[in-house]
Design goal:
Helices cover 75% and strands 0% of the residues. Helix 1 packs antiparallel against helix 2. It is elongated and about 115 Å long.
Length: 422
């Protein structure tokens, strides 16, 4: 049996060893060594208890960051048993409970933090979203409404309240919140983007497009805003509303790599994506919009170099940017992958025609017709090319075929009359 002095020496040794383990980040070992010392009396016990609580806390953080939320929560609860008022414990436990989808416990921990008067501006927002995940929408709204009464000048509170209303399709309630947030922070593109989406959800497409135009002027590099802007313009036009586009200020802007990466995936899965841009009338914003879209296409092609559609869309974007040689190269790339790609043949024919390569243009357009592109505009283009070469018979045949397909095709009718008179 150990004497009292031997026991004290053993405890001191365990404390020193435990402290050494704590200081070198070996928290499980520190817990094992310090736990028996903490149960004793005296100064060593008091110090051991402090470092034991810290070991539980720090090991919990490691486990939480590794995604082991259940074990992390057990460590945090052990830390709380030693020091109930330790900083960040409630937040850490809230994160663990959220990770395990125990949202009722998440809200309980965040409310505990709030009741303790913790100085954390993000707390009302985190608590509100925890209530949302726990399907307590009314409590989420109450939480943010109360925070707004205390701090009415905080745009983020109005914004988050608007987002929560929108999440349950209550756009009539979301709109005034988002409008207020945008008034408080007019250059915050996330706020303005969500305001535009609320307008769109309510069918107010002209206001959605105007709002996105404002956002695009603030962040000409933001690929997501540019895409939404194009879609809003298209939707507004479908309702008979034509909007003038205002160029964004010329300024150096960082490349929004994450948004371009996301849009690159949209390009691959959504064929109408590029059409939404190309349907826009020519304007002073072309350089910004289509330079961004070209970067998106390149990102998509890095992952999918064998997709003929991506090369074709890239060709059309370069054509819009006035980069004819690059457009020709990309149209050729599309045809190397799919030699009977009708639209790529048509675009390449048009590009060759624009660069006075009439013979090559005619060859591509004839190939497009043979591949199924028996369209009036293709025959009319052929007529113009033959006419430029002085081949009146061939031109007349092309114009007549265009008129067979579309009897009111004015350009083909004028062309036919010109070769008949000449």
């Amino acid at each position: 049996m150990l004497s009292r002095s031997s026991s004290a020496r053993s405890g001191a040794n365990a404390y020193q060893s435990g402290l050494s383990a704590f200081e070198t980040g070996r928290y499980d070992e520190a817990i094992e060594l310090l736990s028996p010392v903490a149960e004793q009396r005296g100064l060593a016990s008091t110090l051991a208890k402090f470092y034991l609580g810290q070991s539980f806390l720090k090991r919990g953080v490691e486990l939480m960051n590794a995604g082991d939320y259940a074990t992390a929560a057990s460590r945090f609860l052990a830390a709380r048993a030693i020091n109930p008022d330790a900083a960040d414990l409630a937040s850490h436990l809230a994160r663990c409970h959220a990770g395990m989808r125990h949202f009722d416990l998440t809200t309980a921990e965040l409310e505990r933090d709030q009741s303790a008067g913790r100085d954390d501006d993000s707390l009302p927002i985190r608590l509100a979203h925890a209530f949302v995940r726990d399907q307590q929408i009314h409590r989420a709204i109450e939480t943010l409404t109360g925070a707004i009464r205390s701090q009415p000048g905080r745009a983020d509170l109005h914004y988050q309240l608007g987002v929560i209303h929108a999440s349950v399709d209550d756009f009539a309630a979301a709109l005034p919140c988002l409008v207020t947030a945008a008034q408080l922070e007019p250059t915050n593109t996330a706020i303005v983007r969500n305001l535009a989406m609320a307008y769109g959800a309510m069918g107010r497409m002209a206001e959605a497009a105007t709002t996105l135009a404002s956002a695009q002027r603030c962040a000409s590099h933001d690929a997501t805003i540019a895409w939404l802007f194009a879609r809003a313009i298209e939707a507004a036009r479908a309702t008979g509303v034509e909007l003038a586009l205002t160029p964004s200020p010329v300024m150096p802007a960082p490349v929004d790599e994450r948004a371009i990466e996301q849009l690159g995936e949209i390009v691959v899965t959504e064929p109408d994506f590029v059409e939404a841009f190309l349907s826009l009338p020519t304007s002073d914003v072309d350089k910004e919009l289509f330079a961004m879209l070209a970067a998106t296409m390149h990102r998509a092609l890095e992952k999918h170099p064998d997709y003929a559609d991506l090369h074709f869309h890239c060709a059309r974007i370069y054509e819009r940017l006035g980069r004819t040689d690059a457009a020709i190269d990309k149209a050729r790339d599309a045809l190397r992958i799919n030699p009977r790609y009708v639209q790529a043949l048509i675009v390449l024919g048009r590009l060759y025609g624009a660069t006075q390569r009439s013979a090559e243009a005619i060859e591509r357009l004839e190939s497009a017709i043979d591949a199924g592109g028996d369209y009036p505009d293709v025959h009319c283009m052929l007529g113009e090319l033959y006419r430029d070469q002085g081949k009146r018979i061939e031109a007349g045949a092309a114009y007549r075929r265009a008129l067979e397909l579309n009897g009111s095709y004015a350009a083909a009718q004028r062309g036919l009359e010109a070769v008949a008179i000449g």
